Amino acid sequence: MRNVLTHPPHLPLIAPSILAASFARMAEDCVSVLAPESGQAADLLHLDVMDGHFVPNLTLGPDLCRWLRRELPDATLDVHVMVTDPTRYIAPFRDAGADHLTFHIEPALSDYRDHAGGGGGPLGEGYNVLEVADQVHDAGMSAGLAINPPTPVEAVLDHLDPFEMILVMSVNPGFGGQKFIEPTLEKTRLISKRLRPDQRLQMDGGVAPETAQRTRDAGCDVLVAGSAIFGLEPPERPGAIALIRGELQPAQ
Ligand code: DX5
Ligand code: ZN
Predict the structure, then answer these.
(1) In ligand 1, which atom is closest to the CA atom of 208?
(2) pLDDT, tens digit, for every residue of 99-128?
(3) How far is Cα 147 from Cα 166, in angstroms, rounded to an integer?
(4) Which of 22, 50, 174, 229 is deepest in the core (most CB within 10 A)?
(5) Is the backbone of residue 197 left (phi > 0), alpha (psi -120 to 50) or beta?
């Protein structure tokens, strides 16, 4: 089993967000994008974990991750935690077979309520971003740092070094199917100039065939897409993956 985020076979990588898949037919839906009967396959699965506190929604936890790992032993499982205290979830997701864990900068900021985007609960305890990155690495996963649309890019620029991936949110986190926020592309342009070649830049939220080219042009090389892929019938999904990857042009 190889983590495609640290050993990419090609770029850009396409990461379908299972939040938009059917929770009743989860394994089938995942196979429809990772190993389609024909057409282009996606590269990894994106798992959106929400705690009902950092963002106003509840989604999935380590148990679903464990079931996916059992069903899909070779898949790269990219876990994006939108939670106030990521340290509580590192060991459970490691034990559930996750390859990668991305957590947010905002709860580590003293004025995080202003940057929470999705609402933001009472102030958490806060944490040291570099220490949490170390904990993720010590657990054997690659680490990512995420930034919300309202948070100034400067909040992450001093912390890029230890991360295998930076995630720029292009919607306020909490729900799939929202409209892409164009000004977030300015952030990815700035961050991409500061990254090493072995670091990935991920865009998450509202990525679709119509918006994907702009995100690729702004330096992103891992594109998350939920509704633009799982909103289609299974035979149509490989075509959407090819469009988002830039190997087909959207119809005018
Ligand atoms: C939003 C999540 C996204 C979302 C993407 O909080 O982090 O990963 O599921 O879904 P779409 O592509 O539908 O915007
Ligand atoms: Zn996500």
Answers:
(1) 12
(2) 999 999 999 987 665 555 554 444 455 799
(3) 8
(4) 229
(5) alpha
Q: Dump the DSSP string for the chain.
A: ---TTTS-SSSSEEEEBGGGS-TTSHHHHHHHHHS-SSSPPPS-EEEEEEBSSSSS-B---HHHHHHHHHH-TT--EEEEEE-S-GGGGHHHHHHTT-SEEEEESGGGSTTGGGG-SS---S------HHHHHHHHHHTT-EEEEEE-TTS-THHHHTT-TT-SEEEEESS-TT-SSPPP-TTHHHHHHHHHHHS-TT-EEEEESS--HHHHHHHHHTT--EEEESHHHHTS-GGGHHHHHHHHHTSSPPP-
Q: Spell out, as residue ranges, where the chain has pLDDT lower than 70.
A: 111-125, 252
What is the 244 CA–ligand 1 centroid distance (Å)?
15
With b meaning 16 or more CB within 10 Å and e meaning fewer, what string describes 50-83?
bbebbbebebbbbebbbebbeebeebbbbbbbbb
Give 119-153 pLDDT, tens digit per residue.
Answer: 444 445 579 999 999 999 999 999 999 999 999 99
pLDDT of 125: 59
Whole-number Å distance, alpha carbon 17 to ligand 2 midpoint, is 7
What one-letter code names the amino acid at 34?
L
User: Relative to the CA of 228, which ligand 1 atom is closest?
Assistant: 12
Domain borders along the chain are 13-245
pTM tops 0.85, yes or no: yes
Q: Is the CB of 168 under 6 A from ligand 1?
A: no
Residue 252: predicted pLDDT? 65
User: What is the fold of 13-245?
Assistant: TIM Barrel (3.20.20)
